[in-house]
Prior knowledge:
Number of strands: 14
Mean pLDDT: 94
Low-confidence stretches: none
CATH class: Alpha Beta
Strand content: 25-35%
CATH architecture: Roll
CATH superfamily: 2,3-Dihydroxybiphenyl 1,2-Dioxygenase, domain 1
Largest sheet: 8 strands, mixed
Helix content: 10-25%
Structural class: alpha/beta
CATH topology: 2,3-Dihydroxybiphenyl 1,2-Dioxygenase, domain 1
Distance between the termini: 12 Å
Shape: globular
Radius of gyration: 16 Å
Strand order of the largest sheet: 6-7-8-5-9-12-11-10
Number of domains: 1
Amino acid sequence: MSTRLTGLVIEARDPAGLAGFWAALLGWEPVGANTVRAPASDGGLDLVFVPETGPKHGLNRLHLDLASTSADGLRAKVSRAVELGAVPKDIGQGAVPWEVLADPEGNEFCVLEPRAGYTTTETLAAIVVNSLDPLAQAAFWEEATGWRIANREPVIVGLRAPTGRGPWLEFLRTEEAKAGPNRLRLLLTATSGGIPRPDADPEGNEFVVLTG
């Protein structure tokens, strides 16, 4: 079965409310009450908000990184996020040039300082997945998505869409194994028939496959 990455599924107590937050922050288009869609220039991916299956515990295994093009732009984006209901969050990051926040339901995300690698990503710089083995994870997801490994470092490996637009899919080294179901799950769409893939990657991160 051929699959492609089409978005991210996010559990929420209030799916419509959280969709509204992210639509306003990213400037993406609402599609119905619970889905937010990126423009083609930002990769055309969907954020799909669904009712939660349980409360959030600890840090999410997946998170979003937002891009900025200047120091003023970073501050403006953080201010806008706070106006919409986000709060600054200390996850032990220390003195870093980016800002860590949590959305209204506690999901961590970062607003990055200007970085050369994200000049063609528009608003959303990356979907980041904490990984025990970033290269092995990237290899699995390269096959699953059709994206290519375009950045390989000891602590992070990044996949890029064939179009060169939209966010990176990045696998960031961590020493902490997955514990419990993920609230954020990658969304794949099947483009041909065949046997469905397993619904979790080699490190146990659940994902969703839309078929038919």
